[in-house]
Amino acid sequence: MEILVCxxxxxxxxxxEIEVAGDGNDIERDDLVYSVNEWDNYAVEEAIQIxxxxxxxxxxxxxxxxxxxxxxxxxxAMGANDGILLTDDAFExxxxxxxxxxxxxxxxxxxxxxxxxxxxxxxxAGQVGxxxxxxxxxxxxxxxxxxxxxxxxxxxxxxxxxxxxxEMNEIDLPCVLSIQTGINEPRYVGIRGIRKVASAExxxxxxxxxxxxADSVGKAGARVKRVxxxxxxxxxxxxxxxxxxxxxxxxxxxxxxxxxxxK
Length: 263
Known about the structure:
Blueprint (H helix, E strand, L loop, with lengths): L1 E6 L1 E3 L22 E3 L1 H17 L2 E7 L5 H10 L3 E5 L9 H13 L5 E5 L9 H9 L3 E10 L4 E7 L5 E7 L2 E5 L11 H7 L6 E2 L1 H4 L7 H4 L23 H14 L5
Parallel strand pairs: 1-4, 1-6, 4-5, 5-11, 6-10, 7-10
Antiparallel strand pairs: 2-3, 7-8, 8-9
Helix pairs in contact: 2-5, 3-4
């Protein structure tokens, strides 16, 4: 099975204090520590496990500047076979649709049975996987936390839905899946793996390589623009209730009445 996994280089929230930039339309990016997006890392691990079972290869693709090469190599050190970096000045400022457009162009250059993305990345929109599937006209499932290979034409996928429930569905290949954290336990990347891929050739594709117009992506093609970042003002705090269940219930009712929640 030929699998393409889309990954992104993002600020590592465990290593950084995220602050709003002075102009208010971005975060302070100087001296940030970056890593691979957590959801994407689970997607790569799942792809590797599938290939270990049924054979095939895993290709990593990332949209970003030249620094994004480090996350492509990291995922190759994890066990992926190949990597592709999509970078061009024209890609700067792409919105979700722009990123999906770039990934679609990359996917069209291969012959993939399965395309995986993380369920979401650092902007929290969770939209690229669905847009990519629509552009490729492929079946799609989001928030996937279980994959079972049925045969070379179908998968059985589990999705996390409301109320902590699980649903299982058959989906035809080729397809696009957005992977939820917790689907597996991503393996440790050791020094040996890093050294193994240190000299591996990673193709770098720009607009001409992908056959797309520069004004269809980046700031020129973006329909959604980042206007403002701000830190919400802190509220007055919380009322902590104590006592027995009956006493706390009575206090809660009185508070709701006092605040106009009930009459």
